[in-house]
Amino acid sequence: xxxxxxxxxxxxxxxxxxxxxxxxxxxxxxxxxxxxxxxxxxxxxxxxxxxxxxxxxxxxxxxxxxxxxxxxxxxxxxxxxxxxxxxxxxxxxxxxxxxxxxxxxxxxxxxxxxxxxxxxxxxxxxxxxxx
Length: 131
Ligand code: MYR
Known about the structure:
Layout: E1 4-12, H1 14-20, H2 25-32, E2 37-43, E3 46-52, E4 57-63, E5 68-71, E6 77-85, E7 88-95, E8 101-109, E9 112-119, E10 122-130
Antiparallel strand pairs: 1-2, 1-10, 2-3, 3-4, 5-6, 6-7, 7-8, 8-9, 9-10
The structure holds myristic acid.
């Protein structure tokens, strides 16, 4: 169901979220227009994701419930897991620099992919349209 090519369409409170993450204003302005695209391929418990944006392109492989490392576009390193709860993907990732936790979910809402983020009390959303 998550399979496909998803392009970011709009974001909610993403600037505040990035600010809470400690990202400076210059990078936040660039990140606002990052043209993020994620290609998701799910096979059972295994996911392959191709991420591309104005910052980089990156291939990510993970298995539900199995811890993996990931580096955010600004260089912040995290480690954590994705799990499936019903129709919702729930991710929990700890930053390696301060061990604080970023939680994120992916769900399908009205044909759009909605990714929610939380870090230290600040919530944000990015909404993707299928290509
Ligand atoms: C993936 O499934 O796409 C790879 C793993 C994602 C890990 C957590 C993603 C959080 C991204 C937050 C970006 C915020 C930039 C401050």
